[in-house]
UniProtKB/TrEMBL annotation:
It catalyses: (R)-pantothenate + ATP = (R)-4'-phosphopantothenate + ADP + H(+). InterPro entries: ATPase_NBD (IPR043129), Type_II_PanK (IPR004567). The keyword Lipoprotein does not apply. Its EC number is 2.7.1.33. Pathway: Cofactor biosynthesis; coenzyme A biosynthesis; CoA from (R)-pantothenate: step 1/5. This is pantothenate kinase. The keyword Oxidoreductase does not apply. SUPFAM superfamilies: Actin-like ATPase domain (SSF53067). It holds the Pfam family Fumble. One of its GO terms (biological process) is coenzyme A biosynthetic process. It comes from Nyssa sinensis. GO terms for cellular component: cytosol; nucleus. Keywords: ATP-binding, Coenzyme A biosynthesis, Kinase, Nucleotide-binding, Transferase.
Length: 381
């Protein structure tokens, strides 16, 4: 669902039809991805009709049906649920888990001492940082799963099992991509979270993290918050809709008296220097509209990530680049900028693609790391 170019949160409570709350024991296998900015939660309900969020409201986009045909576990059939919380508000997440009794939805270690029986699969740095807190507040142990392993497992699962999952975005047009399972690898996975990881994926569990950059989603939100005084990420993103980056960015035409620099392939409207105009004008931050600042920042960061991604794809001869992570938020301008950067630098050779479940790759990968016997054991309970 798109609203002003921003796809609504997968966990947003926007919808309408009241359904009875499911009984708690319908839920199973909770997994977590505790990142630098956001905590992503995935859990399963065996009742595939169970489209209910924590307000008891029917929510069409916060879940995904898993059937025998698309699951890695043919005995599993039901629905995957998705939710997210700001990492700085981890107590909200703990309350959510507790209210749904999801902390009983891990694997059970029968032989373990009483306090260590419930074990939840968790990835991301927060699985280390907050392990004691989960133990203290919910009495669960976090079974730590490697973040890169999880990102790749989540991406491979979505690309193979969910259709439509991947799409291109150019000039305001979304085009869903049919994935040929026999021709999926190799590809470059670019996960834009707080920071950015670039992973060359060669198969199931076969990958190498080939690059990364610290200029990522945390940079956009952090710098943007300081420069615009916005109170939320979505507010900052929304501001960028009304902004004009040319007010702050120095264009080729600004330097070349309105002309293209065609000899090196630069049009007069290409950005020569992000934020470059702010140097030559006798203005203070207050003299710029927050809308324009937000737009320039979003463009600078998206462009930079698109360019570094392309260079890594070129390094390894990869034609397909899939972008994930919550920085993207299915935001039109972000996707357009990344796509244009990849298209421009690769002269149309490489393709940027986006994923519908962009921010949940790691949490899905952690979910998939439950052993088959854990899942069967849970179902038996
Ligand atoms: N509600 C939100 N609050 C904070 N950041 C958000 C929000 N929605 C999207 N973002 C963006 O997503 C980024 C985090 O993406 P994510 O994939 O969850 O990474 P991480 O695992 O590092 O938390 C943030 O840095 C920010 O750019
Ligand atoms: C350290 C991280 C893997 C953590 O993941 P995140 O919480 O940002 O999703 C990521 O922030 C990252 O890859 N940063 C870039 C570091 C670098 O290559 O310079």
């Amino acid at each position: 669902m798109e609203k002003d170019g921003i796809r609504e949160n997968l966990d947003e409570k926007d919808s309408n039809i009241m359904l009875p709350k499911p009984s708690l024991d319908e839920f199973s296998h909770l997994s977590l991805d505790i990142g630098g900015s956001l905590i992503k939660v995935v859990y399963f309900s065996s009742n595939s009709n169970c489209l209910v969020d924590d307000n008891g409201m029917r929510s069409p986009e916060d879940s995904l049906e898993v059937s025998n045909s698309n699951s890695n576990w043919p005995f599993l059939s039901g629905r995957l649920h998705f939710a997210k919380f700001e990492t700085s508000k981890i107590n909200d997440c703990l309350e959510f888990i507790s209210s749904k009794q999801l902390h009983y939805c891990g694997s059970r270690h029968h032989e373990a001492p009483a306090g260590d029986k419930n074990v939840i699969k968790a990835t991301g740095g927060g699985a280390y940082k907050f392990a004691d807190l989960f133990k203290e507040k919910l009495g669960v142990s976090l079974d730590k799963v490697d973040e890169m392993d999880c990102l790749v497992a989540g991406a491979n699962f979505l690309l193979k099992a969910v259709h439509p999952e991947a799409f291109t975005y150019m000039d305001g047009q979304k085009g869903y991509v049919q994935i040929d399972h026999n021709d999926l690898y190799p590809y470059l996975l670019v996960n834009i979270g707080s920071g950015v990881s670039m992973i060359k994926v060669d198969g199931d569990g076969k990958f190498e993290r080939v690059s990364g950059t610290s200029v990522g989603g945390g940079t956009f939100w952090g710098l943007g918050r300081l420069l615009t005084k916005c109170k939320s990420f979505d507010e900052l993103l929304k501001l960028s809709h009304q902004g004009n980056n040319r007010v702050i960015d120095m264009l080729v035409g600004d330097i070349y008296g309105g002309m293209d620099y065609s000899k090196i392939g630069l049009s007069s409207t290409a950005i020569a220097s992000s934020f470059g105009k702010a140097v030559s004008e006798n203005k203070e931050l207050e003299d710029y509209r927050p809308e324009d600042v937000s737009r320039s920042l979003l463009r600078m960061i998206s462009n930079n990530i698109g360019q570094i991604s392309y260079l890594n794809a070129l390094r390894f001869g990869l034609k397909r680049i899939f972008f994930g992570g919550f920085f993207i938020r299915s935001h039109a301008y972000t996707m357009d900028t990344i796509s244009v950067a990849v298209h421009f630098w690769s002269k149309g050779e490489a393709k940027a693609m986006f994923l519908r479940h962009e921010g949940f790759l790691g949490a899905l990968g952690a979910f998939m790391s439950y052993e088959k016997h854990d899942l069967e054991d849970l179902i038996a309970h």
